Amino acid sequence: MSAKHARRKAAEFTTPTYKTPNTAQFAIIIENLDINYRGHQALDDVNLRIREATFIGLLGPNGAGKTTLMRSILGLIRTKNVQLAALKKGFDDYIGYVPQRHEVQWDFPISVADCVRSGRLGLPKDSAAVDEALATVQLDELAHRAIAQLSGGQRQRVLVARALVRRPQILLLDEPLTGVDAEVGELLLNVFRSLTKDGVTVIMSTHDIGDALSFCDELVLLNQRIFAHDIASRISPATWQEAFRVRDNSSLLTLVEHHAQSH
Predict the structure, then answer these.
(1) At 12, is the pLDDT very low, low, confident or very high (cuts 50, 70, 90)?
(2) What residues form the membrane-spanning segments (predicted)?
(3) How many domains does the chain have?
């Protein structure tokens, strides 16, 4: 059995592990992570070390494995190749997750406040945490409105508040800016960036390269494997081109080069 095949077999039925003393500067450590779905290689030998209190932009084309990577960190895909370092609370407290908006049943008869409150399932009741989360995303005035009556941008803010109400140490965001206008997008990006000042590690997948370049501390370029993990200014256009498989005249490369020249 090859070493790579052995790693795959070991990843099938085990949960994320948690380390503290010698890895305390890292929030997440991923080593040699392979995920295979019925012959399709979703992730190929992924290695990442994510520092605590960092805003990470997780970038790649459709089907690159971004959601799969997040699901691995969450423990929804069982693997021993993911370590959550410096664990101070229980697993459920430790991670907040904002799924893509289409995964939520928005016609469920529940208010904004109750939806956010449901994010503390399994934890002690904490009205202050609910109020704080709603205020953070500027939804406190809509606390009693039914979620079915919300706009797309308001719904996205509900999902963020629902994740924040757990007061997590790691926040995973799966395309949180999809379908929101510029004003809501800027609000959320500023919220995400401010969380790192409180020690929260934020990982955001997005197709909005411009926002990631402007707001994230570091970028991870993923397309089944890791092509780059660095600050934006140190990632070459050639690496972007290889990761996204675009032509020389791609607007993506123009955007990246323009950002590099202006910073």
Answers:
(1) very low
(2) none
(3) 1
